[in-house]
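Tokens in:
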């Protein structure tokens, strides 16, 4: 009977534990579900928004549905929760107004399968500071990236032929634009309304057709076009609604012949495209592995990273290999110390993981410019050659001639000999004035006999003859 009672107690205990586990699982599932939104956004596309993480994921195959002012995207009402967007491989288009006014989004990932971005697709995505556009994109709609006020650089895809009207209108922090050789036309106000920030636009191909207002209300903008490309006719240069500066973009490959001017931070060399002598302004001139600082303003805890367009391996002087991590209590400007091991011109991007302004730097790394200083050997020390870099102050030493040894020639007696002991003599080194004292051999004086005087005898003592 006692045994059966004990068995029943054990059974009740494990049953209770089982019910608790089931209840907890059901509660957890219910709790997780309340943070999930999902649905369809195309014939073969679905979307899932996890409000707890802020991630919106688009998956499936094919085109996304187009949305409008009267028919918003299904996640529009929850757009304030969206912090990141992942569009997965298989999606071929992003619909009109898909992410309209998603102003808290900080990161967007797009797949290589993407062919088209619709009108107003990323309109007023004000927290986004970087986006990589896949090279297969063939169309970007009107106002697609208008008022994306934190985007700082953009590379136009290799298959895009037309930059549509107001595509980047009001994205005033967009300070670096690389336009692919495929672009044939830039339409009205495509890059308009940039009144304060420095902007550089690099065209990699022939001169496209510009609308007369392509750069409306844009100042501080420099257009770089490839030298030796005759389609860039200076007669056609215009302000296109803004205030533009036009400059040839030279290509330097033979860095061994570069003349670096550290005072003015310029490099001069022969352009490999047009064979003309070209002078290029850079931010810094340094030597391989020279440590220098680049600064970026940050607002909260994040990781600061430096990337190089040329693929060189950035070396951080402190912090991890992936960047410099800033603590929660930091707000202001952080200077990240880095070095670059490879000579040549490097285009660096410095940015933080939590947003803020990315900065772009042109760094020219030149070989050390050593000035030789020779130090002659002394009596006791070897000679050496000291090489000091006039650019960075780095020093290297090479051992020269062996120590010369002392040269003692003219010894002078110290007049300290005795009858039975040799005296000493001293000489000065002819090179260093060091003195050397040694025994003067054979200098002992020896004894010298002295005769006594005659002594007359007296009454007691006998006399003595000297």
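Residues out:
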């Amino acid at each position: 009977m006692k045994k059966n009672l004990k068995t029943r107690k054990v059974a009740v205990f494990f049953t209770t534990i089982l019910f608790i586990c089931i209840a907890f699982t059901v509660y957890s599932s219910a709790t997780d579900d309340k943070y999930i939104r999902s649905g369809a956004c195309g014939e073969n596309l679905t979307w899932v928004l996890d409000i707890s993480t802020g991630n919106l994921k688009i998956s499936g195959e094919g085109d996304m549905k187009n949305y409008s002012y009267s028919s918003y995207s299904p996640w529009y009402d929850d757009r304030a929760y969206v912090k990141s967007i992942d569009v997965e491989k298989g999606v071929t288009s992003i619909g009109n107004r898909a992410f309209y006014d998603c102003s808290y989004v900080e990161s967007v990932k797009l797949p290589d399968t993407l062919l088209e971005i619709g009108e107003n697709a990323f309109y007023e995505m004000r927290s986004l500071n970087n986006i990589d556009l896949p090279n297969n994109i063939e169309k970007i709609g009107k106002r697609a990236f208008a008022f994306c006020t934190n985007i700082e650089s953009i590379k136009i895809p290799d298959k895009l032929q037309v930059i549509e009207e107001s595509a980047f209108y009001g994205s005033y922090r967009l300070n670096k634009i690389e336009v692919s050789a495929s672009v044939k036309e830039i339409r009205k106000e495509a890059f308009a309304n940039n009144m304060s920030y420095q902007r550089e636009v690099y065209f990699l191909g022939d001169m496209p057709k510009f609308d007369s207002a392509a750069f409306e209300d844009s100042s501080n903008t420099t257009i770089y076009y490839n030298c030796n490309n005759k389609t860039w006719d200076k007669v056609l240069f215009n302000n296109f609604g803004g205030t533009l500066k036009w400059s040839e973009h030279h290509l330097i490959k033979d860095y061994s012949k570069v003349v670096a001017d550290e005072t003015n931070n310029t490099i001069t060399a022969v352009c490999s495209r047009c064979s003309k002598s070209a002078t290029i302004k850079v931010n810094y001139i340094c030597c391989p592995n020279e440590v220098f600082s680049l600064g970026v303003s940050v607002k909260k805890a994040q990781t600061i990273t430096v990337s190089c367009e040329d693929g060189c391996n950035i070396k951080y002087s402190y912090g991890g290999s992936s960047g410099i991590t800033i603590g929660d209590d930091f707000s202001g400007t952080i200077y990240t110390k880095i070095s670059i091991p490879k000579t040549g011109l490097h285009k660096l991007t410095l940015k933080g993981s939590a947003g803020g302004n990315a900065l772009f730097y042109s760094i020219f790394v030149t070989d050390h410019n050593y000035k030789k200083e020779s130090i002659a050997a002394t009596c006791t020390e070897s000679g050496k050659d000291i090489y000091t870099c006039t650019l960075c102050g780095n020093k290297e030493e090479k051992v020269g001639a062996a120590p010369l040894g002392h040269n003692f020639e003219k010894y002078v007696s110290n007049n300290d000999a005795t009858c039975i002991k040799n005296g000493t003599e001293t000489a000065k080194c002819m090179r260093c004035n060091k003195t050397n004292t040694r025994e003067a051999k054979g200098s002992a004086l020896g004894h010298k006999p002295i005769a006594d005087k005659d002594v007359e005898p007296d009454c007691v003592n006998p006399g003595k003859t000297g």
